[in-house]
C-alpha cells in the first residue's frame, strides 16, 4: 500500500509494529523523522486508531509543527474527526496542568503563569535582595542554574538544604534563596520550566484517576530523540504507559548531547530493561550523506565506549573528500569561511549552507566576515525575538491582563513607560506587600484606598491601576491580538517610543509591530486566546527560530540537531573550544563532545569543511590554539588540505610518512602529532644520529617535561609546555592550556602526565 511504499524494510517494520514497546535505534540520517510521521499516519489510516488517542513527543516546537504538516500531507484526503497531539514535553505538561493542576492540592490554579529562564533569574535577584545577599558575590544566573539542576535531580528546597555540608557557605546561601524562590513562585501562582515537568509527574503519581484518564486517552505514544530525555521525562513516559505499552521510542545513543541539561543516556541504553519484551529495530541505512562524510563521522564516534553500536551504511556515492583548512588566526578562519561560501553561492545561488560552532559567542567573527562580503545569513540562537526588552515588557503587560497579582510582571513595567512611579514608591509597595503577605497589586490597592503618601505618587498609582484594570477586562472578551495592541498603545508604551524618535526606538516599534503580527497569525491559526498565545511564546526555544529557506545559517551544533544541509562548515576545531575545556579532565564529558562532533558531521549531505585557527583571542588576550583532538580521530586519507603552506595536517602526514621510514614511531613513549612536537621529533632524531645533543638525554628523565611537549593536567586538560624554570623539586613549568590560558605550576605537585 501507498503509505509503506517509500520505506525500506526496517523502516516499514518500525511503522507497522504498532502494539507493544518498540525501540527504534536510528542512526543519523536513517529516516527516523520519516518513520515517526508514517507511523502516526499508519495508525490512523490503516489501524483505524482515533487521532485523539495518539501522542507524539518531539524535541522542539519546530519539529512538532513540521511533523504535524508531514502527517497531514500523508493523510491528505482522509477526513479526520480529531487531530493527534504532537508536542514537546513542556507543551504536553502545560496542557495537562491547565486542566488538572488544582487536583494537586498545593494551591495552584489552572490559570498559573509560566516563568521562563529570564523571569526565573529576575525572581532569584529579588530573593537575593530580600535576603540581603550581595549580588556581586552570588550571581543570580548561577544560582538559578543551581536551583534548576537540583530540581531536575529530584531535589526540592528542603532536600537541597538537608544536603548542604557544614561550612559550605555558598550552598547554604543557595538553599535559602531556593526556599524563598519556591515560596514566591507559589505566591505568584507561577511555575518555572522545571516545575512544569515536576508538577505533572507529581500529579500523575498522586492522582490515580487523572493517571488513568491520560492512560486511556493516549493509547499510542511516540517519543522522538529519546536519547535526550531526562529522569523526569522518563518518569512521565512511564506514568503514561502504565496501562498500555504501545510505546515507540526513537533515538540514537550517538546523538545524545544534552547531558548538561540533565539528559540521561541510560534511558535509551536500558530501554529493554524498563520495558520487557521490547522489540528493537535498527535503522542503519543512511540516506543523507556521502560515504566519505559518513566514514568520517563513524570513525570519530567509534572512539566512544558508551554505545549500543550500530553499523551505518549508505548506498550514496563516495563523494568528495572532507575539506580541511588551518587558519593562522580566528579572523582569517572567518574570512576563509565567508569567501568560500561566496564561491559556492556564485556557482549555485540556491545552495544551502550551515556554519556550525560550539558556542554562540563564536558567531561574531563569522557574522562580520559575511557582512563584509554582503552575504545575507540567518542566525539561530543567541538573542531571540522573545528575549528583547520591549517584547518582554509587553508580555509582562499581557501577563498582568490575565493575572494582575503576578508581582514579577508588575515590577517590570510599573514605571515603563515612565509614569511618575519612582524608586521610593516601588520600595514602599514592596514593603507593604511583604508585610501583608500579598501581591504588589494588593499593596497598590491598599495604598490608593488609604491615600497616604505623596499625592503625586498616589495619583500615578491610580492611573496605573486603571490601565491594568482596562487590560484585564479586555482580555476576558477580546482575541489575543486585540489585547496585544492595547498593551502597546493604551499603556502609553508606543507613544513613549515615538517621542524618543531615535533609530533605536523605531527598531523597537518595528519589533512590537512584529509581536502584533505574531498574535494576529496565532488568532487565525489556533484561535486559542491570550493564555495559549503566551504559553506558546514562553516555550519557544532557540532551535524554533530556524527557517528552511535561508541560504546561509549560523548556529551552534546543538541547535543543528535534526537538520540537514548540502554544505556544512564545522569551525573552531580547537582543544578547549571543541572539545570544550570542561571535557579535558572528564571522560564522560569528552564522550558527549564527541557525540556532538558526530551530530555536526552528519548534518552534511555533500560537502563538509573542517576549520581551525592557530591563534585566538580569549578574554582579549591572544593565545595559541591547538588543533582539536577530534581532527586526529579522522581518517587522514579522507581529507583534502586547503590550507596555505604548512599545516597541522601536512605535518601529521609527514610524521606518519617518517614514522614508516624510521620505525618505531614512539621515542620515550611519546607520540609526535603536533607542529611543536614534530619539531622536537626532528631535534631528537638528529640528536640520536649525532650523539651530540646532551639535552635530549636529560629530557628523557622521568617526570620532566620539556618546552614544546604536551602534558595533561587533571583540571585544565591538555596543554603545551612553554617554558621551564629551575631544576629538581622546585622546577616550575609554564603551560598554555587552551581555554584556560597560561599557568605556572610547580612541576612536582602539578600531577602532570605526558599527553
Ligand atoms: N526510505 C527512504 N528513501 C529515500 N530517502 C529517505 C528514506 N528514508 C529517509 N530518507 C531521506 O533521508 C534523509 C534523512 O531522513 P530523516 O531526516 O528522517 O533522518 P533522521 O534519522 O531523522 O536524521 P537525524 O537523526 O540525523 O537527524 C531525509 O532527506 C529523508 O528524506
TrEMBL record:
Signal sequence extent: none
UniProt domain UvrD-like helicase ATP-binding: residue ranges: 5-290
An example Gene Ontology biological process: response to radiation
Domain UvrD-like helicase C-terminal: 291-562
InterPro entries xref list: DExx_box_DNA_helicase_dom_sf, DNA_helicase_UvrD-like_C, DNA_helicase_UvrD/REP, P-loop_NTPase, UvrD-like_ATP-bd
Keywords: ATP-binding, DNA-binding, Helicase, Hydrolase, Isomerase, Nucleotide-binding
Name used for this protein in its record: DNA 3'-5' helicase
One family name in Pfam for this protein: UvrD-helicase
Amino acid at each position: 500500500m501507498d503509505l509503506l511504499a517509500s520505506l525500506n524494510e526496517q523502516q516499514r517494520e518500525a511503522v507497522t509494529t504498532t502494539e507493544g514497546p518498540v525501540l527504534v535505534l536510528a542512526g543519523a540520517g536513517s529516516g527516523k523523522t520519516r518513520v515517526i510521521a508514517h507511523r502516526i499516519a499508519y495508525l490512523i489510516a490503516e489501524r483505524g486508531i482515533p487521532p485523539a488517542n495518539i501522542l507524539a513527543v518531539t524535541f522542539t516546537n519546530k519539529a512538532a509543527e513540521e511533523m504535524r504538516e508531514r502527517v497531514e500531507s500523508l493523510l491528505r484526503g482522509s477526513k479526520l474527526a480529531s487531530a493527534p497531539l504532537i508536542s514537546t514535553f513542556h507543551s504536553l505538561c502545560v496542557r495537562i496542568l491547565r486542566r488538572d493542576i488544582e487536583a494537586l492540592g498545593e494551591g495552584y490554579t489552572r490559570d498559573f503563569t509560566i516563568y521562563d529562564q529570564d523571569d526565573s533569574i529576575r525572581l532569584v535577584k529579588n530573593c537575593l535582595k530580600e535576603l540581603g545577599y550581595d549580588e556581586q558575590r552570588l550571581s543570580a544566573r548561577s544560582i538559578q542554574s543551581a536551583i534548576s539542576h537540583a530540581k531536575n535531580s529530584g531535589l526540592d528546597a528542603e532536600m537541597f538544604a538537608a544536603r548542604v555540608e557544614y561550612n559550605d557557605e555558598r550552598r547554604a546561601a543557595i538553599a535559602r534563596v531556593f526556599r524563598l524562590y519556591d515560596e514566591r513562585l507559589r505566591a505568584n501562582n507561577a511555575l518555572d520550566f522545571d516545575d512544569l515537568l515536576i508538577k505533572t509527574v507529581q500529579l500523575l503519581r498522586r492522582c490515580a484517576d487523572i493517571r488513568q484518564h491520560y492512560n486511556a486517552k493516549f493509547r499510542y505514544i511516540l517519543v522522538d530523540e529519546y536519547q535526550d530525555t531526562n529522569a523526569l521525562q522518563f518518569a512521565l513516559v512511564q506514568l503514561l504507559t502504565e496501562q498500555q505499552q504501545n510505546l515507540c521510542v526513537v533515538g540514537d545513543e550517538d546523538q545524545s548531547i544534552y547531558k548538561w541539561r540533565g539528559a540521561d543516556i541510560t534511558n535509551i541504553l536500558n530501554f529493554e530493561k524498563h520495558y520487557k519484551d521490547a522489540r528493537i529495530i535498527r535503522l542503519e541505512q543512511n540516506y543523507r550523506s556521502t560515504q566519505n562524510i559518513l566514514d568520517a563521522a563513524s570513525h570519530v564516534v567509534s572512539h566512544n565506549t558508551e554505545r549500543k553500536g550500530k553499523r551505518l551504511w549508505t548506498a550514496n556515492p563516495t563523494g568528495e573528500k572532507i575539506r580541511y583548512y588551518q587558519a593562522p588566526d580566528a579572523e582569517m578562519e572567518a574570512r576563509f569561511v565567508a569567501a568560500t561560501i561566496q564561491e559556492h553561492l556564485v556557482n549555485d545561488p540556491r545552495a544551502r549552507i550551515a556554519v556550525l560552532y560550539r558556542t554562540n559567542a563564536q558567531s561574531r567573527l563569522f557574522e562580520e566576515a559575511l557582512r563584509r562580503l554582503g552575504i545575507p545569513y540567518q542566525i539561530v540562537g543567541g538573542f531571540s525575538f522573545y528575549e528583547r526588552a520591549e517584547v518582554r515588557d509587553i508580555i509582562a503587560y499581557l501577563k498582568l491582563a490575565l493575572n494582575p497579582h503576578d508581582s514579577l510582571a508588575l515590577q517590570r513595567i510599573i514605571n515603563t513607560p515612565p509614569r511618575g512611579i519612582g524608586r521610593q514608591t516601588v520600595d514602599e509597595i514592596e514593603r507593604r506587600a511583604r508585610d501583608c503577605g500579598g501581591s504588589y497589586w494588593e499593596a497598590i490597592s491598599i495604598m490608593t484606598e488609604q491615600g497616604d503618601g505623596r499625592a503625586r505618587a498616589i495619583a500615578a498609582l491610580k492611573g496605573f491601576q486603571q490601565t491594568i484594570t482596562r487590560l484585564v477586562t479586555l482580555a476576558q472578551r477580546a482575541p489575543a491580538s486585540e489585547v496585544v495592541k492595547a498593551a502597546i498603545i493604551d499603556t502609553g508604551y508606543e507613544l513613549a517610543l515615538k517621542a524618543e524618535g531615535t533609530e533605536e526606538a523605531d527598531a523597537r516599534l518595528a519589533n512590537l509591530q512584529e509581536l502584533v503580527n505574531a498574535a494576529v497569525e496565532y488568532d487565525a491559526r489556533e484561535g486559542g486566546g491570550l493564555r495559549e498565545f503566551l504559553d506558546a511564546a514562553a516555550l519557544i526555544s532557540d532551535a524554533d527560530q530556524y527557517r528552511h529557506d535561508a541560504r546561509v545559517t549560523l548556529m551552534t551544533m546543538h541547535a543543528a540537531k535534526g537538520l540537514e544541509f548540502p554544505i556544512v562548515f564545522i569551525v573552531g576545531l580547537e582543544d578547549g573550544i571543541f572539545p570544550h575545556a570542561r571535557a579535558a579532565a572528564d571522560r564522560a564529558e569528552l564522550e558527549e563532545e564527541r557525540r556532538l562532533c558526530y551530530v555536526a558531521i552528519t548534518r552534511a549531505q555533500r560537502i563538509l569543511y573542517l576549520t581551525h585557527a592557530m591563534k585566538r583571542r580569549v578574554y582579549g588576550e591572544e593565545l595559541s590554539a591547538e588543533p582539536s583532538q577530534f581532527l586526529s580521530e579522522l581518517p587522514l586519507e579522507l581529507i583534502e588540505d586547503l590550507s596555505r603552506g604548512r599545516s597541522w595536517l601536512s605535518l601529521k602526514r609527514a610524521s606518519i610518512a617518517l614514522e614508516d621510514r624510521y620505525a618505531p614511531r614512539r621515542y620515550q613513549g611519546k607520540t609526535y602529532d603536533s607542529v611543536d612536537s614534530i619539531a622536537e621529533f626532528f631535534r631528537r632524531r638528529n640528536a640520536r644520529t649525532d650523539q651530540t645533543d646532551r639535552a635530549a638525554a636529560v629530557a628523557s628523565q622521568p617526570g620532566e617535561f620539556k618546552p614544546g611537549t604536551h602534558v595533561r593536567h587533571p583540571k585544565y586538560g591538555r596543554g603545551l609546555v612553554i617554558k621551564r624554570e629551575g631544576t629538581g623539586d622546585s622546577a616550575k613549568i609554564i603551560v598554555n592550556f587552551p581555554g584556560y590560558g597560561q599557568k605556572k605550576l610547580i612541576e612536582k605537585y602539578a600531577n602532570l602526565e605526558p599527553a
